[in-house]
Amino acid sequence: MEARTFLVTGASGFLGYHMCKYLVTKCQIVRGIDIEVFDYPDIADGVTFFKGDIRDR
User: Fold this and answer.
1) Residues contacting 43, CB < 8 A, separation 6+
2) Is 26 within 8 Å of 46 (Cβ atoms)?
3) Lower CB density within 10 Å: C or N end of the chain?
4) What is the pTM of this model?
5) Is there a contact between 30 and 8 (Cβ–Cβ < 8 Å)?
6) What would the pLDDT profile of 2-46 be if each residue is shown by its tens digit?
7) What's residue 10's pLDDT?
């Protein structure tokens, strides 16, 4: 299966973390964004994280 790129909003939250973890285990390219710090060392190598608010212009 070809790797696809996914953007997970709210990546630092409960659902966002589990979505990122699932996608990383499926060898997908994962980008995460959240206003909180992404502090999950178990999947940090598989997620490119951006700290910010998607409502910002």
Assistant:
1) 17, 20, 21, 24
2) no
3) C
4) 0.90
5) yes
6) 899 999 999 999 999 999 999 999 999 999 999 999 999 999 999
7) 97
Best CA proximity match to 45, nearest among 35, 37, 25: 25
Q: Which amino acid is at 30?
A: V
Residue whose token pair is 């299966």: 1
Task: Please name the helix (run of DSSP H) or strand (run of DSSP E) that holds residue 46, with its range, or none.
Answer: none
Contact 27, 44 (CB under 8 A): no
In this structure, the number of other CB atoms found within 10 A of the CB of residue 16 comes to 20
Show the beta-strand stretches assigned E in 1-57. 5-9, 29-34, 47-51
